């Protein structure tokens, strides 16, 4: 059964003690199984305090981050690669100490708009570094999720098939594909088919909508996406991600172009997302059963 989560930026823009406590408490009160903790700056997370808050609330955690230009492990620049590997290992230590199960996001390159294409050597170096990080992650039963994002946020993984190929090159069982409906809606020719084709390589899944607001109020075929997840027999975490200028601050506001206030009430947004996700999963599972129920006697 899929564990359902919500990104912390639905609640708070930072991770001070007060923000951490509120975000975790709100997540638990709404009824989610887990919270996704942003780790763009791993040093800003008080691991002991966060772990205690999670234990108190009785929920789990995952975490996500993206490298920057100075830590880009796909750059084919040895100094940047070194700093990038150190950043990933630092984040991994934080994620381990808060008891999180997944380290996801743009781990394979910088989280930015590139002016030039990636290179074969850059991808090779990225795979080698991620293989080393995956080995350390495996010791603590942590899954790495390589996020497939749109062309304005990376030049390495823009489609699910590219991510599957990268997982195969890395060759570690705890390296999986992190899919996100917002990005797939931009880059995939057929979102549902891409989900089905990714199949056992899916390790993490982000829901949302085309404008990053309320689920079901945009243009993404979410019913089709959930049916594809069920058909692919995906059992991992499904986390709702949404951004509004009411909460998100810099640097994400600038990187993601969050210029509009897409919602006012975080609680209402999160409650709707959980209800919508449960309803879509139920409908998708019932649709899957129709073949069995439609057999001739």
Q: Which stretches are poorly predicted, pLDDT < 50 over at least 5 residues?
A: none
Q: What does the largest sheet look like? A: 8 strands, parallel, barrel
Tally the beta strands. Answer: 8
Rounded average pLDDT: 94
CATH fold-level topology: TIM Barrel
Ends apart, CA distance between termini:
31 Å
Look at the structure and name the CATH superfamily.
Divalent-metal-dependent TIM barrel enzymes
State the assembly state of the protein chains: single chain
Whole-number tally of structural domains? 1
Portion in strands: 15-25%
The portion of residues assigned to helices is 40-55%
Shape: globular
The CATH C-level class name: Alpha Beta
Examine the secondary-structure arrangement and name the CATH architecture: Alpha-Beta Barrel
Q: Which structural category fits the helices and strands?
A: alpha/beta
| Tally of helical segments | 10
Helix and strand pattern? EHEHEHEHEHEHHEHEHH
What's the gyration radius in Å?
18 Å
Across the major sheet, the strand order is 1-2-3-4-5-6-7-8
Key features?
TIM Barrel, 45% helix, Xyl_isomerase-like_TIM-brl, Xyl_isomerase-like_sf, D-psicose/D-tagatose/L-ribulose 3-epimerase
């Amino acid at each position: 059964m899929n564990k359902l989560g919500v990104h912390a930026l639905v609640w708070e823009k930072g991770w001070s003690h007060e923000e951490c406590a509120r975000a975790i408490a709100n997540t638990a009160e709404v009824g989610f199984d887990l919270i996704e903790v942003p780790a763009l700056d791993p040093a800003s997370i008080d691991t002991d305090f966060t772990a205690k808050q999670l234990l108190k609330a009785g929920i789990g955690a995952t975490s996500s981050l993206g490298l920057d230009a100075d830590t880009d492990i796909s750059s084919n620049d040895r100094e940047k690669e070194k700093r990038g590997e150190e950043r990933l290992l630092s984040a991994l230590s934080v994620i381990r100490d808060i008891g999180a199960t997944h380290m996801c996001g743009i781990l394979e390159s910088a989280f930015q708009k590139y002016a030039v294409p990636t290179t074969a050597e850059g991808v090779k170096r990225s795979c080698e570094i991620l293989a080393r990080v995956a080995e350390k992650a495996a010791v603590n039963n942590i899954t790495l999720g390589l996020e497939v994002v749109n062309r304005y946020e990376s030049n390495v993984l823009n489609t699910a098939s590219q991510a599957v190929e990268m997982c195969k090159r890395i060759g570690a069982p705890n390296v999986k594909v992190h899919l996100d409906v917002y990005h797939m809606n931009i880059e995939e020719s057929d979102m549902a088919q891409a989900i089905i084709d990714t199949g056992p390589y899916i390790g993490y899944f982000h829901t949302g909508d085309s404008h990053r607001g309320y689920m079901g109020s945009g243009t993404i075929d979410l019913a089709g996406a959930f049916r594809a997840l069920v058909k692919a027999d995906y059992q991992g975490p499904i986390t709702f991600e949404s951004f509004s200028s009411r909460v998100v601050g810099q640097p994400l506001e600038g990187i993601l172009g969050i210029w509009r206030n897409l919602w006012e009430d975080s609680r209402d947004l999160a409650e709707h997302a959980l209800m919508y996700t449960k309803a879509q999963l139920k409908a998708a599972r019932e649709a899957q059963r129709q073949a069995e129920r439609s057999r001739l006697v």
